[in-house]
Amino acid sequence: MTIMEILEIVIPSAILSATPLILTALGGVFSERSGVVNIGLEGLMIIGAFIGAVFTILFEHIGLGAASPWLALLVAAIIGAAFSLLHAVASITFRADQVVSGVAINFLALGITVFLVKKLFAGSGQTPYIDHRINKIDVPLLHDIPIIGPLFFSNIAYTSYIAIILAFVVWYVLFKTSFGLRLRSVGEHPAAADTLGINVSRMRYLGVALSGALGGLGGAVYVVTIATNFGATTISGEGYLALAAMIFGKWNPLGAMGAALFFGFAQSLSIIGESIPFLKSIPDVYLLIAPYVLTILALAGFVGRADAPKASGVPYIKGQR
Amino acid sequence: MNTKRLSGAMVPVISVLLGLIAGAIIMLISGYNPLQAYGDIFQMVFLTPYYSGETVVTIIPLILSGLSVAFAFRAGLFNIGVEGQLLVGWLASVATALLLPAGLPKVIMIPACIIAAIIGGGIWGFIPGLLKARFKVHEVITTIMMNYIALHTTNAIIRKYFYAEGERTPNIPDSASLSSQFLYNLTAGSRMHWGIIVALIGAVVMWFILWRTSKGYELRAVGFNPDASLYAGMNVNRNMVLSFFISGAFAGVAGAMLGLGTYHYMTINQDFTGIGFDGIAVALLGLNSSFGVILGSILFAALETGEIGMQSLGIPNDLVQVIIALIIFFVASNYIIRWTRDRLKKKGGGAK
Question: Mind telling me which residue stretches traverse the membrane in this protein (chain B) (predicted)?
Answer without folding.
Answer: 9-30, 50-73, 85-102, 108-127, 192-210, 240-263, 275-299, 319-337
